[in-house]
Target: GRF-type domain-containing protein
Amino acid sequence: CSVNNMDTTEAGNDSFGIDVILSDGDKPAPCCPHGPTLLFEKICKGGERGRRFYACSACRDRKDCKFFQWEDEKVSDARLLAREAENHSKRPPFNRDEYCGRLRKFASLPMDDKKFCQDCQILLQPEDHEDHSSHRVRSITVAELQRPSVLMLPLDNKKSNAQYLFTDRSSHFLLDTLAAVGYRKVLCVGTPRLQELIKLRNLEQKHKQMKSLLLDIDFRYAQFYSQEEFCHYNMFNHHFFDGEVRILQTFLTEYDGEKVVMVADPPFGGLVKPLANSFSLISRTWKMQKSETGNSDMPLVWIFPYFFESRILECLPSFTMLDYQVDYENHPLYKHGKTGRKQSPVRLFTNINPRDVVLPKEEGYRFCSVCQRFVWTLNKHCHKCNVCPSKDGREWRHCSTCEKCVKPSWRHCQACGCCALPDHPCGQNQGKGGCFNCGSLEHKHKICPLKDIHRVRGRNVSHHPLFKAKAKRKSGVAHRAKKTAAALV
Model:
């Protein structure tokens, strides 16, 4: 998505979108419970830049994190104290050292005494049992301790967490592929399932041993992993909550040919620009830990929907989108399927040589000798475009007028001079050009900053514009009065 769905009515009627301004480090950003905030800038009519403001880096809805501050705003001492108190109240119940102490103590308990509180989502110590006596507490097994992502309830708020977990199919494919290419250390950024699979395989001792480090904003994983295995981390602002950047630095150091690769699975509503910046900062840290110098970037697999391809390539032009369809266990739509619309739209974006990523033939992939990469079986090579063009799993067709391949459901429109859906809003901007999505004459719909503003994990949750006139917004009192009047009719 383009930007947090924050209730920024302050932006006014002349705003068309919001751009994120990456900090140069000269001026520290104020903090919310999710770490340093991001600086945003309004994009107004005619491409003019509007007033800048700070907002939460992780949450896309002001209901989930209400932080808002104009860049040039003077904040009173009282407000700063209240903000710090709120940030402190939302910290994890234990610090990192306390979590490690609890983990060591929990590991020494007899199996009958190992309990888990389902209400609080916490492993219990013997002294905790009385405080949780009225909660749903149950015993847990060794197998459950090895799969915390299965034991714990996923954080399924799509607007702030969107914690969807890989299926075993996708987890095994990713790990097998990375091992085949020669990687022995995996930095798991928001991929707890991959971390679990690595540790389970190491216990089986049937594969070469691999090391892993999980960076995740879900602090609950701290109770299952040591300090060398987990860091509480926000990938949108590259913030380590417990100042554990040294753990990352140590992990990225390659000894005895232990090649490092990063696998990142961000929330799909996240901003591409700050994510790419965080991954670039990790890559820079990796370069600093290497003994030999070079211009190569850290190997990275970024898992994201295919419709973000242009934005990712704009930030990371060396990347390639692969055809492999990633599916999720607890998502109703993002499943691997056999036909176009039933397929998962989630793909792999990587700077690893596409030829080295072998996609499974038994799942419907084949090797294109011209493109030198593996593609989906319906992704037929177009000799006019000299590329395998399909992005969504369907067989695309070539339009001679547009001189490019388009989706099979699109038809060429003479009035618009391009291919589009048959029922597209033809001629809305005829003679004016510009964007038919927001009305701006400064850009086309393809790069409209509001195009995917309300898209959440592949579906639209709202078609209302981000900014509304203040006069059109009903107050809470007016809204309740309207509901009361309707109930009396």
About this structure: The CA atoms of residues 33 and 90 lie 6 Å apart.
